[in-house]
Amino acid sequence: MNAISANDTSLSAALLAHVQDQQVLATRLSGIIEAIDVVYHDKPTSNGVTVLLSIARDLMDQLDTNLDSVNLPKGGVA
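Structure (tokenized):
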């Protein structure tokens, strides 16, 4: 019973760390989207929008991959 409890604790800690990492990515993505909005409204034809969209897509892909159930921490390893 103690081994199961220890595994549950380490898995919970690993899952919490994993979720916190995804929160950081989501916050970065939110900032990029805000920047796109500012650049677009300031200068709609700016190359900056294209660059920021590329960064946003990369962050979105990272979040999508990291939150896929097959990529969640297993056995306390994040």
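Helices lie at 2-42, 47-67. Residues 2-71 form one domain.
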